[in-house]
Design brief:
Structural class: alpha+beta
Shape: elongated
Strand order of the largest sheet: 1-2
Order of helices and strands: HHEEHH
Distance between the termini: 59 Å
Oligomer: single chain
Helix content: 40-55%
């Protein structure tokens, strides 16, 4: 029997949306779906696939969200 590797949990896109919002990044589902679409490809990197479903690493997604933040000076 192959040995099972215990990795960090992976999140579906809906779980990722909840995770980002729970950690202070108010992103809508529709915007997350837009930036994750293959045509745009500006979302957090996909960690792996389960069949055709992309799964995301929670820590990498938070790093991605933080990188999208702008300083108050840039926002003006």
């Amino acid at each position: 029997m192959p040995e099972v590797s215990h990795q960090k949990p992976r999140l579906t896109r809906d779980e990722l949306w909840s995770h980002l919002n729970a950690n202070g990044y108010p992103i809508s589902r529709s915007f997350l779906n837009l930036v994750c679409s293959p045509a745009v490809d500006k979302g957090p990197p996909v960690a792996t696939y389960w069949g055709r479903r992309p799964l995301y690493d929670p820590d990498t997604a938070l790093t991605w969200a933080e990188a999208r933040c702008r300083s108050p000076r840039e926002a003006a």
